[in-house]
Amino acid sequence: MRCPHCSEPLEPGWKHCPACEKKAPTLEDCPTCGFSVISYWMKCPSCGTALSGGGADPSAASPLSSWPAGEAARPPEGQMEGGMAGSPAAPPVPEPQPAAFDPMRIPDGRWVEPREFGRYRLQRMIGGGSHGAVWEATEEDSGETLALKIVPGYGRASRMRKRILDQRRLLADEGCRAYVLEAGAPDVLVRNGMDWLLLPMERAEKSLRDWLLETHHDVAGRLEAGVRLFSDACRGVASLHERGVTHLGLKPENLLLIRNPDAAEADPERRLPFRVKVGDPALGLYLIPLEPESAPAAWHATRVPMYCAPELIQAPRLKDVGSSADLYSLGAILYEILEGDPPFGGIVEDILWKHRNMEPMEIRGDVPRSLCGIALRCLDKLPGERPASPEEVEHLLMEAFVEERAFRKAEQDDTLDAWMGFLAVFPQGYRMEEARKRRDALQASPAPRTPVASPVGRAATDGDAPPLSMEAGPSRLVEAFAADAEDTDESPEAQAVEVNARDGLEYVWVPAGQFEMGRSHGDEKAGDSEKPRHAVRLTGGFWLCRTPVTVEAFRRFVEDTGRWFPYPPDCNVGWLMGTYPMVNVTWEEVKAYCRWVGGRLPTEAEWEYAARAGTKAKYWWGDEIDPQCAWCVDNSDLRLHEVGELRANPWGFQDILGHVWEWCEDWYGQDYYKDSPARDPLGPEEGRFRVLRGGSWRNFAWNLRVSLRNRNIPRYRSDNNGFRPRLSRLPGS
Predict the structure, then answer these.
(1) How many whole angstroms separate alpha carbon 584 and alpha carbon 577?
(2) What pLDDT is attached to residue 141?
(3) How many CA atoms lie within 13 A of 51 on its CB side?
(4) DSSP class of 452
(5) What are phi and psi of 607, to 5 degrees?
(6) 367 closest CA partner among 508, 224, 258, 500
């Protein structure tokens, strides 16, 4: 039994609710059928008899259709069954009344004959929880089959409906629907003196809980599939957080698996016929009688004890709980995928105590330590020590999987070159110590070094640029760039265009030359980092991609290396638009792409040399913005577009200003121009940020100036960040 004022669970005999301190209801028996009823109910939900003060005809039949076979009525207390001689005198037992249809109480199992309930025809009960029952139902007007959540309103259904409508307006856009369960407008239905809230939603194949139970016998075998499903869940939670919604009720039961027959076509990296969508976002907050911001957080914690964050148990009010609570719940779900069981078990009180005071047990030994570390980091008791966002959790998972595959490949080859290549790509990885030990052992051995396949999944070729570590010193960088210059003895003609067979994109030849780098003539908006203007000479020519790398080209990279696509932007759901620029990629990911394609990122000097294309104005076309030359906030409609739609600069490069910021090779230095070298500058030796150049579709025109310098951390993702590779020679040439 629950308090009618705040829904706090109540024990029999309590006179007041411990949460809201209001008078608690009492349990009574219906005088007709003996069904247990709460004192404030107007009618018995079993037989329809009017209760005290109800004002209804006690003999009136229920307006709802009855069960095929109603349960026999229980004799009133004090009368022995069958009216045996010597039993206390009692009024005659009335004839059993047909039981009213209660969608929350199914006496004969889950399958029932179809029932009309408002404008829906209920087919069968498919689930339930602390708030209500979920039915498979058919909508009368459209004939559509959907899932219908039926929640008892206790007189508050209309108010709950308004709250849910306000929330669902926030989640109605296309980007959110890709990873959040689609839901229709809620209805309110009054039947038999009871109000019901009807919540129609997309019909799911099963829940993640069902999938976990089906695969419980093979926890090790389900690992990769489970992490891919979990990745979808991260994207759904990220969509909610972007719109200011915190779920606060994440559990495997409301992560729904939607069958997607076109999954392989829409997402080539996916090997599963399902996509996970997040259901019931913040639903519990809207079904409580108090205002969500004022409700006690501990009340909500009892609804999801296995997966609730410590702050959800300890905070005085729900509004004091931040979105990091969802990261903790995600960590508990990932822990269960990896281990086979949730991090804590027991009765509700024990579980809540363990969430506050105990650390989870060590995950079984055959699970990669990198994945275990991500789950345990999400389960940190302090919100500030968890990952910053669901996107970061997904990124860490992708890195862990790629690192694990590379480590196994290096283990298989077990040569010095293999381990050095692994450490160059993953200098701070979870397997770093093991790789270093094996490298040191091989260095001490007289065994000869032999070339091996690269750790990202393909054989190395002569056209590969040497992998550059983020820890590489200046001499290492100089050697690598010098090697690039040596490869260009036979220079093609200026502005020659060739197709790279590996990624299918066109590359333009940029000859060696000299230009003025930094603040353009007459540019009053130039910042200190763009000054002083200085002469730079590039001693070697190079190939540079004509446009930013497209989704279709990145798809080739994903298929060839076994990597994953990052979270898609709202304007390219499912990465369906193959000619859009590839975005949401970190500096480390674009470096891996450039190594795969046979090159690297351009230095900041190389990028500006190609962008200016011999011009000296603020933009390559002049000093005023031209909507035919670059996408910015003035003409982009605040979304991405196909690459190559606008005019090219004098050397043939398109979208080099506007559309997407482009990652460069260099570390960022605010004052680097003051003492940078005049020949082939490589940027500072170390730093915190990597350089971004060119401006984007969501920036104002002044951010597209060719000299403007931007920067961000290497692991930063954004839907307006892209890149274009730089090659010394094309593969096969």
Answers:
(1) 14
(2) 83
(3) 21
(4) -
(5) -65, -50
(6) 224
| Residue 532: cis peptide before it, omega within 30 degrees of 0 | yes
Burial-class residue 397 by CB neighbours within 10 Å (0-12, 13-18, 19+): buried
- Reading phi first (left if > 0) and then psi (alpha if -120 to 50, else beta), residue 160 is in alpha
How much of the chain exceeds pLDDT 70, in percent? Answer: 72
Q: How would you write 574-604 as a 3-class SS string?
A: HHCCCCCECCCCCHHHHHHHHHHHCCECCCH
Over residues 340-362, the pLDDT tens digits come to 889 998 888 888 888 988 889 88
Cα(86)–Cα(422) distance, integer angstroms: 90
Distance of CA 248 to the CA centre of its chain: 15
The answer to whether 600 touches 726, Cβ cutoff 8 Å, is yes
Q: Which residues lie below 8 Å from residue 348, measured CB to CB, with a gap of 6+?
A: 302, 305
Nearest to 260 by CA among 269, 252, 270, 250: 270
pLDDT for the residue numbered 101: 55
Question: Span 487-727: which CATH code?
Answer: 3.90.1580.10
Residue with tokens 């082939």: 680
Q: Which amino acid makes up residue 241?
A: H
Q: How confident is the model at residue 185 (pLDDT cuts 50, 70, 90)?
A: confident
Q: Tell me: domain 111-201, CATH 3.30.200.20, correct?
A: yes
The neighbouring-strand residues paired with 662 are 693, 722
pLDDT of 235-255, one tens digit each? Answer: 889 888 888 888 888 899 889
Domain regions of the chain by residue span: 23-79+96-100, 111-201, 218-284+301-316+329-397, 487-727
- Segment 120-124 shows an average pLDDT of 86
Which ranges of 254-342 does DSSP label H, i.e. alpha helix?
263-266, 283-286, 297-301, 310-314, 324-339
Q: According to the model, what pLDDT value does residue 602 have?
A: 96
Between CA 124 and CA 130, with CA 127 as vertex, the angle to 5 degrees is 135
CB-based contact 282:247 (threshold 8 Å): yes
Q: What is the mean pLDDT of residues 466-492?
A: 39
C-alpha count within 13 angstroms, C-beta hemisphere, residue 116: 8
Tokens of 9: 């669970």
Q: What is the mean pLDDT of residues 518-522?
A: 90
Q: Which helix (H) or strand (E) holds 205?
A: none
Least confident of 34-38, 105-109, 698-702: 105-109
- Do the beta carbons of residue 468 and residue 712 sit within 8 Å? no
Distance between CA atoms of residues 643 and 414, nearest Å: 42
Q: What is the pTM of this model?
A: 0.52
Look up residue 568 and give its two tokens.
Answer: 């898609």
Residue 490 has pLDDT above 50, yes or no: no
Could you please report the per-residue DSSP string of 351-420? HHHHHHH-PPPPPPTTS-HHHHHHHHHHT-SSGGGS-SSHHHHHHHHHHHHHHHHHHHHHHHH--HHHHH
- CA–CA dist 694, 700 (Å, integer): 12
Domains 111-201 and 487-727 agree in fold: no
**Topology given in CATH for the domain delimited by 218-284+301-316+329-397:** Transferase(Phosphotransferase); domain 1 (1.10.510)
> Does residue 68 have a pLDDT over 80?
no
Whole-number pLDDT of residue 155: 74
Q: How confident is the model at residue 52 (pLDDT cuts 50, 70, 90)?
A: low
What does the block give as tokens for 526?
A: 């130039």
The predicted pLDDT at position 1 comes to: 59
**Predicted pLDDT at 610:** 95
Confidence of residue 705 (pLDDT cuts 50, 70, 90): very high
What average pLDDT score do residues 633-656 get?
93
Is the sign of the CA dihedral 281, 282, 283, 284 positive or negative? positive
Nearest 5°: CA angle at 64, between 59 and 66?
A: 85
CB atoms within 10 A of CB 507: 24
Query: How many helices (DSSP H) and strands (DSSP E) are in the chain?
Result: 18, 23
